[in-house]
Amino acid sequence: MYKYVIFGLNVLSDIELGCYHSTFDSPDVTIRHMQCISEELVNGFTEIGVNRSIFSLKDKARFTIEDGKTIEIESFSNIPNIELELYILGTAMGTIMIQRDEFPIHGSFVSNENVGIAILGDSGAGKTTLATQFALNDWKIVTDDVMRINIDNCISNVHASYPSQKQWLNNEKEFKISIDKNLAIHNRIDKYYFSEKSWFSSKSLNLNYMFEIIESDVTDVTITELINSDKIDLLLRNSYRYFIIDYCQKHLKHLAFILKLSTTVKIYKIERPIGIFSVESQYQLINRIIGEKNGLLYQK
Fold first, then answer.
1. Where in the chain are the domains?
2. If the chain, 300 residues long, is cut into consecutive pieces of 10 residues, what is the mean pLDDT of each piece?
3. Which CATH class, in words, describes the domain spanning 105-294?
4. Which long-range contacts (CB under 8 A, 24 or more apart) does 44-52 make?
5. Nearest Cα to 58, choosing from 31, 76, 73?
6. Which of 19, 243, 288, 291 shows the smallest number of beta carbons within 10 Å?
């Protein structure tokens, strides 16, 4: 059995994962790889409940998540661990958090240990690309796609997830990085597993700012600070796997978390031109905002 700390949770797994190793006596979450199956599966959730949810991948695997504590996987015999890992660390762990009455946010998180920034947005908006720009300027990536956030004494903290990203192929040229073409992500066009260990942090760090990227009919990048209900709307639409929250009728608990989170961070909307690589402008404008708020610029 392998021992990891993932999203701040002690995870005992009989599947080897590309996560941070740990030592502990008692796990928070246990991952079990059950017997192989051959029955026909459909894609998507076949059961959603407060304490038990099941989802399947056609011709791949079935995941049963229970009590915020266990993930059981039945898979076809020829499925590599790296494919299972994608759904373990995404949908399955996100479901674990919701079962535990924790409400993950869909986004990346970068930090230089003084300031922590969440990067939000729809798929393809540019979250990973902007996080990469920060990493190339000596910031650390704490989590790539899902954020588990705890709030204590009006301070929000994001837990580290795992030391890898899902990179778009065109970022290889734009950033002059090397992407292994053998590590293509199943069912994701032009997206690949990428792990540059020096880019990542295993620490859980404070969250100070959130920036949502939106493609818009603008000629230049603009950033606008949001207030009041606009902050709530942004956090609601960037909640991870909201349909599970909705189905389990956890709206009030989720809203209470969102309201509390909104008081601990500054939240902004980034509008970027459609079809134009503008990540350097986004990075510079964010640094300017952070510099104005903190009395200095956090640049390389």
1. 2-99, 105-294
2. 97 96 97 83 93 92 97 88 92 98 97 95 90 95 96 95 91 88 78 89 96 94 96 97 96 97 96 93 94 57
3. alpha beta
4. 45/244, 48/243, 48/244, 48/247, 48/248, 49/248, 50/99, 50/248, 50/250, 51/99
5. 76
6. 243
